[in-house]
From TrEMBL:
It comes from the Bacteria. Residues 4-84 form the ATP synthase F1 complex delta/epsilon subunit N-terminal domain. It is a peripheral membrane protein. Residues 89-136 form the ATP synthase epsilon subunit C-terminal domain. The gene is atpC. InterPro entries: ATP_F1_dsu/esu_C_sf, ATP_synth_F1_dsu/esu, ATP_synth_F1_dsu/esu_N, ATP_synth_F1_esu_C, ATPsynth_dsu/esu_N. CDD domains: F1-ATPase_delta. This is ATP synthase epsilon chain. One of its GO terms (cellular component) is plasma membrane. It comes from Carnobacterium iners. Keywords: ATP synthesis, Cell membrane, CF(1), Hydrogen ion transport, Ion transport, Membrane, Transport. It is found in: Cell membrane. Belongs to the ATPase epsilon chain family. Gene3D superfamilies: ATP synthase delta/epsilon subunit, C-terminal domain (1.20.5.440), F0F1 ATP synthase delta/epsilon subunit, N-terminal (2.60.15.10).
Length: 140
């Protein structure tokens, strides 16, 4: 049975390195499903979750990825991300605090007039919402 070796790397180091039967990512153009033998591909990633169906266990791992790129070649799926967190490693309280801060900035009138500040707050909000969403997949 063919498998995919999945590696997720950030500037801080390796976040994930396991074998999988399927990987699902969200590129900036939409969702992409990767199976063993997939044609070589490189895609830019959106702020979203990466879902990985593990081979050795009958489970799915979910990782919050905040942008980056994915390359699939020779049954190796490499994801290089700005930051990434496994569901089990997410500090949910910190994610909710970041979400609240971003919403407060966006609600202020000066953010509407400062497009750079608004853009940063929107990205922070998307990252926080992604982390909160992925945290719901942690095993208890």
């Amino acid at each position: 049975m063919a498998v995919i070796q999945v590696q997720i790397v950030t500037p801080s180091g390796i976040v994930y390195n396991h074998r999988a039967s399927r990987v699902i990512v969200k590129s900036i153009d939409g969702q992409v499903g990767i199976l063993p033998g997939h044609t070589p591909i490189i895609v830019p990633l959106a702020i979203d979750s990466v879902r990985i169906e593990r081979v050795s266990m009958d489970e799915e791992n979910v990782i919050a990825v905040n942008g980056g790129i994915m390359e699939m070649r020779d049954n190796v799926c490499s994801i290089i991300a700005d930051s990434a967190e496994r569901a089990r490693d997410i500090d949910v309280e910190r994610a909710f605090s970041a979400k609240q801060r971003a919403e407060e900035i966006l609600s202020k009138e000066e953010a509407v007039h400062n497009s750079k500040q608004q853009r940063r707050a929107e990205i922070s909000l998307r990252k926080a919402i992604n982390r909160i969403s992925v945290s719901k997949h942690r095993k208890l």
